[in-house]
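To assess whether the prediction recovers the assembly geometry, we first specified each molecular entity separately, as shown.
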Amino acid sequence: AQSVAQPEDQVNVAEGNPLTVKCTYSVSGNPYLFWYVQYPNRGLQFLLKYITGDNLVKGSYGFEAEFNKSQTSFHLKKPSALVSDSALYFCAVRDTNTGFQKLVFGTGTRLLVSP
Amino acid sequence: EPEVTQTPSHQVTQMGQEVILRCVPISNHLYFYWYRQILGQKVEFLVSFYNNEISEKSEIFDDQFSVERPDGSNFTLKIRSTKLEDSAMYFCASSEAGQGGNQPQHFGDGTRLSIL
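The predicted structure of the complete assembly is given in tokenized form:
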């Protein structure tokens, strides 16, 4: 069965500094990988996805993520953090071997960007 | 930008009662989903729906739960005989028909269900 691990409950970074939110996954086939962000009292907002091709994918709001097949990782990055990036970030995976659409989510990482 | 809308935003129900959560997916989407998030826990898949039938369901989605697309726009989740442990945030999502599920799922803001 597929699974996602987000090893950090919280990441603290100063505004203007680069940020990384870590994600590792486990699937039986090839993964489709997604990052979502959740602001207070809101739903999950899609940021970016990796399906195939270039290992570095770019998404909304200046975020990018790097797919590493050998390390089964898909870390979210941003070169320069903003206070407004403070939110809860979820990594999710779909196992293409299963033939189904469901996403399996990690437990989430709270990003706190200080001024 | 089109959005998935969910109503109500908060539902309070007595244990044992039936509740219906409503969702309006994005209009050109063909796949529909329900997820739930118990407070402090991860987002969990409940069910996916395509072509007017359930395409996948999780172990959570037992006979207590049902889904329906009663018309061309709404997608509902019914929970019968609610239990205290059904208290959670319920998210509806929808996606386009991509190749093998490569399209992102777009989520609504959720319905917070509180069972008393």
